[in-house]
Amino acid sequence: MLEWLVALCFVILVVLIWPGFKYFNTESQSDALHQRLGISQLAKIDKTGRCVSEQEGSDGAQAGDEKKRAVALICKPSALANYLLKHCRTFSNYSPCVGWTWRASALLQSVYEACCPYDSPVQFVRDNLQLSDEGLVALDWAVPTYQKRRRTSSHSTSPVLLIIPNSFGKITRNLLKLCETALSYGYLPAVFNRRSHNGTPLTTLKLQQFGDPADLREAVRYIRHRQPAGKLYAVSESTGSGLLLSYLGECGSSSYVTAAVCLSPVFRCQSWFENALCWPLQWALALYQKICLSRYKTVLGETIQTDTLFSSCSLRDLEEALFCQTAAPPGTSSSCNTSATWDVYWERNEPLRDVDEVAIPVLSVCAQDDPIRGDAQSTIPLELFETNPHFFLLLTDHGGHCGFSTQSEGSHAGASGSVGPVAAPSSGMGSCQISWSHKALLEFFRATTDFFAAEERTKQLAARRRGLGGGAAGRTFRNRSVSTCKRVPECSHNIHAIYNWQRSYTR
């Protein structure tokens, strides 16, 4: 009994001391990263060409300095970057929880968002999609519980928000809140479930590899068939960003996605599987994945070594057992160069392998104190955001992994939350406190869409003027009707409107 009391006191002491310790520890890490970046947060574009967010303190110099350190937008200078800095007010309006509170702990708020149950007023309608190899994936369409009609008309022009969960298939509290928020702002959220995830039947002996976008490509094709009139946006959470980045890189300008956001992504995934996580988190994630796979233990034994699989204690061992080793015939040994096989596996699945082919704006929302991703200086490819005009990094000092708790969270729980250019939430679904990261991604989608529309109008106006003012010198066409201008045919999915700005917005 005495041992249990001592253990309980120790746990209480850790919970009380941990937030303050992490607060002071992340302050020093933040200073080191800022010194490495050389960022001057008072300027929109610094001398090295990095584009950073401008913060203006309104509560005195001290409060202004604290807000300036809270968040930075790191990207290559471009017309779109300037537009985002001007119209995305949420980017520069982040007040993280600091001090002696559990929400200031990166670990505690990350665990809370991942594991704590959430009573969401959202229900899901599932579409099981049979793939070309007869495998099954699922799309869960989020609809409000009060909505009587469970299916959306194919003639709806509402934008579709494709949500990719983490690679372990866990539907987190953060993801449920995102579905609720997206519904309140007029989106049609659809959660992509990989083979065997979240009750999706495993009809083949093939599991989806970490960065293989083949199944996602067929799911996007189905979404375009079901909602041909709506634009498509994509959001990924945690390790699920590896699948989204792989898809955008392999498909390039044929991804049919208007813009994408990665929440707390893991960029260098091979290194992350090898040595990024501490052993308690590795053990917990490996245990969760083995529990999900245990129902298929018999059938998976035909292609993989199940004994090795279910005795694995690390994420690397688990991934190697699933995709880098095959079941040996009876009476033979399975000696193979697993190290070489492991490297070859990541040559095909590393998310950034085709990053130069990405042709749409991608926003990554990261925190420096992320306990899952690891040290920001070694895990965030800053050179990618400084040189590639399609990638934008919203980097906060605090926020944990998909947490991003704010000081106003809880005190304004009943407010709908104004997010500037984002349209006001529709009635019935806007009563919950909206996460700062969700506000930021919705503003990003709205701003990029408005920017593309303005660019398209400018191009059409210039083409119209050329059509009305061209010809021989001195000749005028005052009586020519505007209808004589050649009209460019538009496809049903408005693909031309989505992709013909590629070479202009990066200027």
From TrEMBL:
Location(s) in or outside the cell: Secreted
Domain of life: Eukaryota
Keyword Secreted: yes
SUPFAM superfamilies: alpha/beta-Hydrolases (SSF53474)
UniProt xrefs under InterPro entries: AB_hydrolase_4_sf, AB_hydrolase_fold
A Gene Ontology term for the protein's cellular component: extracellular region
Keywords annotated in UniProt: Phosphoprotein, Secreted, Signal
UniProt keyword Phosphoprotein, yes or no: yes
Subunit structure: Interacts with PDE3B; this interaction regulates PDE3B's stability and expression and, thereby, impacts the antilipolytic action of insulin.
Primary role: May regulate adipocyte lipolysis and liver lipid accumulation.
Family in the record: Belongs to the AB hydrolase superfamily. AB hydrolase 4 family.
Protein's UniProt name: Protein ABHD15
